[in-house]
C-alpha cells in the first residue's frame, strides 16, 4: 500500500520527465529553461500535441485556429452564472464545451482558458468582458482581455514564459486525474474537469496566491524571521516551498525568476522576495534537518503573475491555462494506451459474520 502513490509508476509517457534528484525537467526532449526562454504558447501547444493528433496543422495554422476558437468561446461567457470564484468560473465555462477526443476539442479547451479567466476577473471587478482579438497571440490576447490594452512585447513574452514553463510536469496530481478520466473514454473536456478540480487545491495549483499573501503580511524584511517562525510553530505550511518529487530546487523556479527579471520595474520586489525566500529556506532547513525543502515553481509564479498585473485570485486559473496543454496531450496518450485505470484497495472495514 502506498497512499500517496509516490513509488507507483502508473504510465509510460513521451511528454515530460521530472528528475527530482537533480532538479531537471525535460519536456519532449527540451530542458524547461530553454522552452521558457524561447517558445510562445502556440509553439508549446504544437510541441505537446505532436504525434497525438493526425490532423495537427503547422504552428501558424494552429495559432489561427486558437484565435478563432477564442472568439467562439467568448459567446459562452454570458451562460456562466454569477457568484463563482475565478477557478470555478473557468471550470464551469470549460464544462460547456463539446466533449470529445478530437483536436478541435483540445483547441477549444486551450483557447477558452484565457477567455473565461479574463472574463471572470472582470466580472469580479464589476466590469464587462472584453472580446478576444483572433489576430493577437494567445498570451497578448489574454492580457488584453484582462486590462483592455494590448500589452508590450516584454509582457506578452513573460506570460508565454510562464504558460510554457507549466505546460507539463510528469504525472502530477492533476495530470494523473486527467488521465484517469480519459481512460474511461469520457472525452477531453471531462479529462480537463478532472485536471482542474485536482489543480485547484492549495497543495497543488492553489499555492501562488497565498505566496503573495505571505509577502504582504511580512511587509518589510525585518519582519521575516518572526513571521516565518510563528507560522511554522503553528504547524502551517509555507506556500511556494517543498515538493513531492524535487529534492533540490525546482528548475521552473529559476526559469520563471529569469522571466520576472526581464520585466522592467521588478528589481525591488525581487530583492524583497529573495530575502524572504532565503529566510524561509534557512528556517525550513533548521526545522527539517533530514529533509531538503526547497523553493518550488509557485514562489516565482507569484512574482511573475503579479508583475503582469494578473490578480492573485486568478493565479490558479492562469496555471490551468498553461497546464491544459499537458492534460490534453496526456489524455490522448492514455487513450492510445487503451487501458482503463482501475487500481485496487485493501478493505479495512468490518466483515459480515458468515453463517
Ligand atoms: N512548509 C512547511 N513545512 C513543510 C512544507 C512547507 N512548504 N512542505 C513540507 N513541509 C513539512 C511537512 O509538513 C512534513 O512535516 P512532518 O513530517 O512534520 O509532517 C515534512 O515537511 C516533509 O514533507 P514532505 O513529505 O516532503 O511533503 P509532501 O511530499 O507530502 O508535500 C507539498 C509536498 C504538498 C508540495 C508540500 O511541500 C507543501 O504543502 N508545500 C506548500 C504548498 C505548495 O507550495 N504547493 C505547490 C507545490 S508545486 C505544484 O504543485 C505546482
UniProtKB/TrEMBL annotation:
List of catalytic residues: 243, 298
Family annotation (NCBIfam families): PRK12350.1
Family indicated by similarity: Belongs to the citrate synthase family.
A biological-process GO annotation: carbohydrate metabolic process
GO molecular function term, any single one: citrate synthase activity
SUPFAM superfamilies linked: Citrate synthase
Presence of keyword Acyltransferase: yes
Signal sequence, renumbered to the chain: none
Catalytic activity: oxaloacetate + acetyl-CoA + H2O = citrate + CoA + H(+)
Protein name, UniProt field: Citrate synthase
Assigned GO CC terms: cytosol
CDD domains tied to this protein: BsCS-I_like
Keywords noted in UniProt: Acyltransferase, Transferase
UniProt keyword Acyltransferase present: yes
Pathway: Carbohydrate metabolism; tricarboxylic acid cycle; isocitrate from oxaloacetate: step 1/2
PANTHER family: CITRATE SYNTHASE (PTHR11739), CITRATE SYNTHASE 2-RELATED (PTHR11739:SF23)
